[in-house]
Amino acid sequence: AIQLTQSPSSLSASVGDRVTITCRASQGISSALAWYQQKPGKAPKLLIYDASSLESGVPSRFSGSGSGTDFTLTISSLQPEDFATYYCQQFNNYPRTFGQGTKVEIK
Amino acid sequence: EVQLVQSGAEVKKPGESLKISCKGSGYSFTSYWIGWVRQMPGKGLEWMGIIYPGDSDTRYSPSFQGQVTISADKSISTAYLQWSSLKASDTAMYYCVRRDGSGHYLDYWGQGTLVTVSS
């Protein structure tokens, strides 16, 4: 199975900060990567698909980039509602796999 | 509006069987894959498997193959996840998810079903 390694596992940031989360795949997955946001007690929500396509209704401060094995999720200006855990997921191979998550906390 | 509505929380004893459900609405149920994702307490997301209700084609993660059964009843637009003999380690939140039609990402999520297995 393809392993996805996210870094960092957690980070502290302030409102207005630029935040970058990385996701590295154990083998190439083209652009078959999605990013999800999960808030406490809630189901995850799709943010980015195909590595860089913004899901409808998601604020433009979220962006994704990368292909092959290295991917990033960037939040250009962190807002209070963005404090959450973020997961990457690959859909190039079965079984589909998730990264271990990155928790974004308030500094 | 696309909705995935899951059955309610369950409390079971080890060794008992269980079947939880996920009803899809607002779209053509037989045209989209439906999957299940596990989240153990305080942990990350784990992809369990997926089924195409149109023909019941099913794929499992090796970690869950033989441990659970995924099925669907297209006549009532409902997918299922079942266990024949629960273990304490099955305690988790389970989410049903819809796979996008043209892509393979998970575009809609159910609200989750909490399964607690305790003696």
Q: Would you tell me the overall average pLDDT of chain A? A: 97
Radius of gyration of chain B: 14 Å
Please provide the count of β strands of chain A. 11
Helix-strand string of chain A = EEEEEEEEEEE
Q: How much of the sequence of chain A is in beta strands?
A: over 45%
| Biggest beta-sheet profile of chain A | 7 strands, mixed
From N to C, what is the helix and strand string of chain B? Answer: EEEEEEEEEEE
Overall helicity of chain B: under 10%
| Number of H- or I-type helical stretches of chain B | 0
Structural class of the helix and strand makeup of chain B?
mainly beta
What topology emerges from the helices and strands here?
The complex is a heterodimer of chains A (107) and B (119).
Chain A: E1 4-7, E2 10-13, E3 19-25, E4 33-38, E5 45-49, E6 53-54, E7 62-67, E8 70-75, E9 85-90, E10 97-98, E11 102-106
Chain B: E1 3-6, E2 10-12, E3 18-25, E4 34-39, E5 45-52, E6 57-60, E7 69-73, E8 78-83, E9 92-99, E10 106-109, E11 113-117
Parallel strand pairs in B: 2-11
Antiparallel strand pairs in B: 1-3, 3-8, 4-5, 4-9, 5-6, 7-8, 9-10, 9-11
Would you give an account of this structure?
The complex is a heterodimer of chains A (107) and B (119). Chain A is mainly β. In chain A, 0% of the residues lie in helices and 50% in strands. Chain A contains no helices and eleven strands. In chain A, the strands form two sheets. In chain A, strands 2, 4, 5, 6, 9, 10 and 11 form a seven-stranded mixed sheet that branches. A four-stranded antiparallel sheet of chain A has the order 1-3-8-7, with no helix packed on it. Chain A starts with a strand and ends with a strand. Chain B is an all-beta fold and 119 residues long. Chain B has no helices and eleven strands. Chain B has strands at 3-6, 10-12, 18-25, 34-39, 45-52, 57-60, 69-73, 78-83, 92-99, 106-109, 113-117. In chain B, a hairpin with a 5-residue loop joins strand 4 (34-39) and strand 5 (45-52). At the A-B interface, strand 4, strand 5 and strand 10 of A face strand 5 and strand 10 of B.
